[in-house]
Write a structure and sequence with these properties.
The chain is mainly alpha-helical and 199 residues long. The protein has 4 helices and 4 strands. Strands 1-2 form a two-stranded antiparallel sheet. A two-stranded antiparallel sheet has the order 3-4. Strand 1 and strand 2 form a beta hairpin. Helix 3 runs antiparallel to helix 4. It is rod-shaped. The N and C termini lie far apart (93 Å).
Length: 199
Amino acid sequence: MTSKLQDGTVCLLQFDYAVPYSDPALRGVLPDMQTVHCILGILLLIGAVVWSTHRTGRFLTRETEKLTAAAQAVARKDLDSAVFSGAKVREYESALQALQTMGDELTGSLQKQWDMEQRQREQIIRLSHKLKTPLTIIKGNAELLAEDDLTEEQRAQVEAILQGAEQTRTYLGKIRAEVQTPLKYKTKKNDKTCRIVEN
């Protein structure tokens, strides 16, 4: 602040505004109030940053857990327990939708595989039943031949026929037992998802 005296002299006055403590004993111990306000402002800013970072970290952790759970459900082929929506982050929601699409395609692929295996098993069962009748006839005729008077060479050939027929029947029995076991995949469809269960 400038002031001009009567004799023309210019006087410069400077004022320092401060808020001193009412207790004189605190004035020499604690910093002035302006400094305290600055320190408190900085501490509040640091506290706000730390709280915001912690809250954001917990939020992203929860969203990541949703994504991880959906991916694990797809890996287990258990799509009934998977949740493919509800993420509050747009990118996570897109990833969940992609996982659902992948799960649906996996279900369709396994369903096709199941159908193909079922058709193959039915064809094998029909073929084994068709082979059973001529095999029985061959074995019966060979047993009848074995009762006749045969030379050693003829008897050896009849024995070879009987052994071959028995081996073929045993092999067909193993095939029927194998194809009659439960299929590897079963599908269970509901409104939106499919669950693949391995036996």
